[in-house]
Amino acid sequence: MSKLSEKQNIKAIVSAIKAEEQSLRARFPILKMQNSIAMAIMLLSLFLLIGVGALYYFALIPAWLCIILAAFITSISHELEHDLIHKQYFSNRPFIHNFMMLTVWLMRPNTVNPWYRRQIHLHHHKVSGTEQDLEERLVGNGIKSPFLRAVVIMDGLLGLLINSKRFSKEIKGFKFLQVFNAGFPITSAYFAILYGVIAYHVVQFIQPFELPPWGTDVVAVAEFLMVVLIVPNMIRSTSLNFVTSSMHYYGGVTNLLEQTHVISSRWFLPFQLFCFDFGRTHTIHHFVPNQPFYIRQLISKKIQLVMAEHGVRFNDLHSLKHANRYLEKDE
């Protein structure tokens, strides 16, 4: 642990991150084409998702393989959305920028729209670790009960309904309908299909019945969407929510060093796979927000050593027992 002051440690980490990025960009001039790289990644991800869906439609791959591949692909679109929120791509060309925002939302339909998420995410950077951090609290951060935490992590809509009253009391400016309506119409359709298919099969199990031809067609489309988009995004969002709500602190936070810890534990590897290694790299983002996600991936190995030297904790899973509170070593 460094004996420098908190400000000095933070400055050292930020300087190291920026220096590694500059070195990387000097060695690979193609990184200057930031907009083009982002568009290529987005289009490739979109076409891969469509391609995987087509392979499943024509029975060339089984449902389980389609779900796993689609979950991984959509995790890339989340990273793109994160960068778009920070206006890393096409910031001076609003039509293309908003087209990308819409596309990544369509690929991840179980989230609020990215324009609203920009508001709560930028606010998250200002109030990270406090009860005012709506973004992290929506995904389970700060919840002590393992059961309630699991529900919120797996089902964002149910979590919102459960915590709405508490949020209204504790979070300034929180309005249930504002968050709920931020999912219309794409997220609304996602949950309508999800709950509709579940309800249909439950009723069929209890009391089987026949559907008219048009009803059979509707169920077939809904079940196809469950495999290629809905279940994959359940896996993706559950993995991401579990990792992010485990690595962000809630309470006891006074500076950047205390907002997150790095998760590199092998026990988290299955979840890291479906959130694009979020646990290993997201702490870098807290120190330098305006940086493309692929840069974080490329410099993370070296920067982890710097962060460890300057006071950032690693795998502080003990904090989960205390509802993510940042505890001093003598507490």
TrEMBL record:
Stretches that traverse the bilayer: 37-55, 61-78, 176-198, 218-235
Keywords per UniProt: Membrane, Transmembrane, Transmembrane helix
Residue ranges of every copy of the Fatty acid desaturase domain listed in the record: 61-316
GO biological process assignments: lipid metabolic process
Pfam families listed in its UniProt record: FA_desaturase
InterPro entries given in the database record: FA_desaturase_dom (IPR005804)
CDD domains named in the record: Membrane-FADS-like
Protein's recorded name: Fatty acid desaturase
Organism taxonomic ancestry: Bacteria, Pseudomonadati, Pseudomonadota, Gammaproteobacteria, Alteromonadales
